[in-house]
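Hi everyone, sorry if this is the wrong subforum. Our group has a chain we'd like a structural model of before ordering constructs, and none of us has done structure prediction before. Sequence below.
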Amino acid sequence: MSDDRPYLDILERVGFVLLVAGMLDIGVMIYCIMNAMAYSSSFNIFAVVLGVLLIRGNIWAASIVRFFGAFFLAGGLALVGFLPFLQPMSLTLAELRNTSPFGLAFPAALLAMCLWAALELNRDPVLAAFSASDRNISPLIFPLALGVGLVSAISGVIIFT
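Answer:
Right subforum, don't worry. Here is the predicted structure as tokens:
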């Protein structure tokens, strides 16, 4: 670690986790395609690209991951809260019974990773690097509110139509 750039260790750590998670997601996607299984994820290639950029110390990528980590975390948790109101409870319970453990573990792990990445990239050395690069530092409350607001608005439209 360089003493004049202490944020690089944090960026490398988060980048490595994103790179590994993206590669695993690509592997699962390939497996599902080869076995004619349904699979949808838009996480894979973005995680790989942003992971590589973070490993290389790109501060722009750090701000993107920080923002969207908080946004997806808030949206995912809000969706869990609204799910009972979006469909009948019996349908929700039937879907849970017929979902594989992987089908539940992957979204939970993704939300945990979003939380971890947003918190890591919100640490003081990274925020100081944002300031030094003239990058706007918005508080995490903005992407959190945006994620909850988007899910709330869409859920409201679904519930009341």
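For your construct planning: The mean pLDDT is 89. The two ends are 55 Å apart (CA to CA).
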